[in-house]
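Shipment paperwork, digital attachment
Item: protein structure file
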Amino acid sequence: MGKSLLKVFDGLCDFSSLVILYVTVVVIFVQVIARYVLKVSLPWTEEFARFTFIWLIFLANAMAERQKEHFRVSYFVEQAPRKVRYVFWYLGEALIFVFFCWLLYDCMTFVKMGAQQIAPVMQLRMDYIYWGLPVAVILTLMNRTRNFIVTIRERPENPFT
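Attachment content:
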């Protein structure tokens, strides 16, 4: 059940990212054609592109976490003995997990604040945009937890890879 649910979330994240990317490209293309060929301004396209780009960045963060593609400086840790590497890895994982839990808690205040704000051109409540962060944090925590469990089970020589 757990693995199939994670695959559903992975698929939704991948599919949503692709849809957002394609729609954003089309909207920006329409904006360029309208502005430079038709000499017509479409003000909603800039706001739309900005909002979809925000969601795309947050979803990409969760996807990078799933594939362990986040930037790490691990040269010195990799030179340490295996047990020391695991100590640093556990400490790092604990700190990152605490950070994401704090971020999830804190960003909910931001989302609530966004419910009181309206986007100037699209007249969209800003909490719809701000929800991108908690969604990404939840997906990131899920992916981090999955990677943590896999690393604990497999016990690779270097847990950072």
